[in-house]
Amino acid sequence: MSKHLVAYLTGPPASGKTSLARGLGEKGIAVFSYSQQLGLHIAAKRASSLTHEQLRERSASVVTREDVDEVDQQLVDFIRSERSTRPVIIDSHAVTREPYGFRVLPFATEHLRNLELDKIIALYASSDVLLQRIARDPGGRQTASIAEVERQTHLQSAVAVSYSAILGCPLYLLDSGHPAEELEASVKALLS
């Protein structure tokens, strides 16, 4: 049985992860939206639903390490079922902005290894671009200063570098300030 590539897509808020993943999904790539699955998991577990925006707003107050571990297992199962038929992209980020600063909830090492990632793709953009995007469409994201946006971008990149070093797989840092079509073509080429 052949195995298609599995790529982890990450980046700070408003870097375009979700839009990029959605576009790739429309072109036949299997997409696992971590935040969407986390929201569904929390809704089922607690018998209350949260919108994507509410999940972003409340993050650490509603998402536990146990929730992350359980969704990590769902992700491993998703990859095992999908990668034999098509490439897989995981839309996720480990760093959230909280009222007290930032929280990093990375994959547990065992779960990270079970993902059998082939590539890691980290999006970034200038703080000006990210702040403009957040202002245009807050979507539950908190307002942030330039320093906070830069810090979150650096923290998320550090997590991506750590994952790359642990797994020994390549990391690609892509500027999402480029036109969406160019970015999508670049990522699609990386998945070929």
Could you please describe the fold and organization of this structure?
The structure is a single chain. With 192 residues, the protein is of the alpha/beta class. It has a single domain (6-190), classed as P-loop containing nucleotide triphosphate hydrolases (Rossmann fold, 3-Layer(aba) Sandwich), CATH 3.40.50.300. The protein is built from 8 helices and 7 strands. A 5-stranded parallel sheet has the order 2-3-1-6-7, sandwiched between helices. A two-stranded antiparallel ribbon has the order 4-5. A hairpin with a 2-residue loop joins β4 and β5 (101-104). α2 (34-46) crosses α4 (65-82) and α6 (127-136) crosses α7 (146-167). It is globular.
Radius of gyration, CA atoms, in whole angstroms: 16 Å
Give the CATH superfamily.
P-loop containing nucleotide triphosphate hydrolases
CATH structural fold name: Rossmann fold
User: Which stretches of 5+ consecutive residues score pLDDT under 50?
Assistant: none
List SSEs in N-to-C order. Answer: EHEHHHEEEHEHHEH
Q: What is the CATH top level name?
A: Alpha Beta
Our count of helices gives: 8
Report the CATH architecture: 3-Layer(aba) Sandwich
| Mean pLDDT level | 89
Query: How many beta-strand elements?
Result: 7
Number of domains: 1
Taken from the alpha-carbon principal axes, the silhouette is globular
Major sheet attributes: 5 strands, parallel
The side-by-side strand order for the widest beta sheet comes to: 2-3-1-6-7
Q: What proportion of the residues form beta strands (DSSP E)?
A: 15-25%
Measured as a percent range, the helix fraction is: 40-55%
Give the terminus-to-terminus CA distance.
17 Å
